[in-house]
Amino acid sequence: MTTLSIDDWADHVWYVSYGSNMWATRLACYLEGGTPPGGDRANPGARDQTPPVRSTAIDLPGTLYFAGRSAQWGGGVAFYDHLSAGFTAARAYLVTAQQFADVAAQEMRREPVDRDPLADVVLSPLPDGRHRAGPGVYETLVDVGSLDGRPLLTFTAPHSAHETEHTDPSDAYLAAMAAGLQESRDWTDAQIDDYLTTRAPDVSRGRGRGDRPQSRGAR
Fold first, then answer.
1. What's the predicted TM-score (pTM) here?
2. pLDDT single digits (tens) 112-127
3. What CA–CA distance (Å, rounded) separates 173 from 207?
4. In this structure, which long-range contacts are made by residues 42-49, counting pairs with CB atoms below 8 Å and at least 24 apart in sequence?
5. pLDDT on residue 60
6. Which of 68, 65, 53, 54 has its CA nearest to residue 18?
7. At what angle do helices 189-199 and 171-185 cross, to 10 degrees?
8. Which member of 5, 52, 67, 136 has the greatest number of CB atoms within 10 A?
């Protein structure tokens, strides 16, 4: 990852991931294009394919839960409910506002486009800390704080954890999340299993472990 001074960050925000994008290899498919290991669909990539400036582990207040069915992974995927009590392990990447908008577009299975209004939205304070960009499951932006003078932003579903049916994530999705947790936090298999099984009660300990990729190391 490249190094910038804080004066160069005016057009940057922290994209906060709590799901498979905690794994840098998976996020790279949204920036550079390609199919993530264990996935079924190719992503077109961002208009700016520059790697994130840096990343760091972030602890979020709130609940992680799994819902829906992903065309990419074949099972439930992670969502974040910031209004419910709990702890969510996340990873923040310092990216441009344009890159943030392009990742958000691809999460909704859209092609990144020029002059995406979301790029301007994320550079201004969000009213009440939230912004509904659309009706989709990953189109509700949440401001979860700031770091080094730049906002920490994530996107999630418009509903709470208690307002939707929870679904079982696939082994491949769990493996991608596990790789991100190990890569960003250096957690052991036991710590990863503890975290995932308490947030998805139907997930048995060690599930997906055989599919877990080799970590590239914390970055």
1. 0.90
2. 988 888 999 998 999 8
3. 11
4. 43/106, 44/106, 44/111, 44/112, 45/102, 45/112, 46/98, 46/99, 46/102, 46/103, 46/106, 46/112, 47/98, 47/102, 47/112, 47/114, 48/96, 48/98, 48/99, 48/102
5. 98
6. 65
7. 130
8. 52
